[in-house]
Fold this protein.
Amino acid sequence: MMDALEKLLEWGGTKRDIIFLVISGLALVVSGFDLLPLPFDAAWIAIILCGLPIILEAIHGLVTAFDIKADVLVSMALIASVIVGEDFAAGEVAFIMQLGGLLEELTVAKARAGIEKLVHLTPRTARIVSADGREDIVAAEQARVNDLVRVLPGETIPVDGVIVSGKTSVNQALMTGESLPVDKHEGDEVFSGTVNQYGAFDMRALKVGEDSSLQRMIRLVQSADASKAKIVGLADRWATWIVVIALVSAFITWCVTGEILRSVTILVVFCPCALVLATPTAIMAAIGNATHHRFLVREGDALERLARVTRVAFDKTGTLTTGTPAVKEIYTFTDKYNRDTLYALAAAVEQKSEHPLGKALVASYRETLKKNSSSTGLKEVTDFVMTPGKGVAGLVDGHRVRAGNRELMEDLAPGDKGLQLAEQHAGLGHSVIYIAVDDELAGMVALADSLRPDAASTIADLKKVQVEPVLLTGDHENAARTIASQVSIREVHPNCLPEDKLNFIDRSEAEKAPVCMIGDGINDAPALRKARVGIAMGGVGSDIAIDAADIVLVNDDIAMLPHLFALSKRTMRTITANLTFSMVLNFVAIILAMTAVLNPVTGALVHNAGSVFVIVNSIFLLNWKSAVSARVRAA
């Protein structure tokens, strides 16, 4: 029998609590209306199932850490009620308290698996080249400093190092969040976990194993999670004062009147049922509102923390921008070809390219054809040649067409006009593809990441709710400041590695300016976990970023972010109103208990009326609309 009881108490968290609450509720109905002829008061079922865990937790907290929380006062009310024979009052108090605890538990997300997903990104093998030129594939952790490592197209770079031979482009989004791949040559550094786009190269290993960049990223996520402060419940913060006031009031009443029943009534009416319900009911209603506006709140106290945020830090790529480069301008350097013809030739030769810039050029051209309702597709390309780290070439309509960077055009002079235009776009953080036709530099195409249409209005609305936007990005300074100027963000931090973003969050916390981090990439995961609140883009965001975040923006509609911030502040006002009402009601009830107007049972009913008010007041949050949400939905 005892073994079965122990297994029942150990079983299943939330499911067990729900079953115990249902049984206790039915037992209180039986007790209150005397429905069954039992040899004991049915309220004892609620006292044991709901009250005993509260008492044990209160004793544990007092003994181990002298931690006075709300459960201490509840335990005193329970024990006092039982001593004077008010079993129904004791069972009712225990039931309400456990109901509040369950509601709070249901708002807390379960443990996440982000760190495990980061571990799965760790390269499994490394291709070691020996002195005699032989290649040996070994486990990545067996690579040693100064080993010569060969990386083939499409492979993940296994260690940190420097290229000694070969040219390529590397997708560094994992480490820096840059929207475009970075061309790499001899002497350039490369990092573990980043992806070699095309072109084989040999590298000299500099940092291996636990010293590699990817392993440092994993440790950053782990440390950020461990150091993230949790909000202490308001009921528990006020519990010490409530316990003192209740005990003093009960003792004085007993001394003055000599009636223990009045003292017990004071403890019952001061039992913080409404106080305990004040926060979780408001949070649950607010989470329902956020869900309606396409936010998935994954941490129960995230909205409480968000209300205290004064800075919101945006990653650039995939957050304020779409994360996909697109053609911005097309220039011709000769009268032989107009803009449209040059565009068609460039798209034709790039259609077989593996480079993201080439793919972006072709996608933009196809979109142009669609908008113009043109039935003409891409021209055919033959004799296609790709030169890693430089560009592509081929025959299009009998013309020899080249598309790539300056190195591909080293035999051709761009002229003053070409150089000036290229410098202007480089200053804006744009990427440039030069186009040569029949060994003549014919023009160039400028590409850049596209700003989200509602980015500027979102930043303006965030400022209206007293939140200062900041741009934290791994992109170069020119690209970062160009985007920041377009959306009116004053504070910009470019060239940020994951460690830099964590340092910014630490500095802001030290300055009493809590940060909300909004990002989408793997490189944002440590900052999302470290920030007071992390919000991930659910559509374009990586699984690891989503797992690291407290809140997920399901459809990537950043226009609703100001509503979320306004909702968090409204939620805290609702919680404050709930707490204030419950405390006022308790003080009124304590006076009535001192004057014997209330007994333990009627006292329990009065303070439960406060619980009903708290629940009803919280429900109004479900359909609350901010000015931003009303305007966006109207549009």
The chain is about 50% helix and 20% strand. The first strand starts at residue 125 and ends at 129. Confidence is low (pLDDT under 50) at residues 1-12, 107-119, 224-232. The first helix runs from residue 2 to 10.
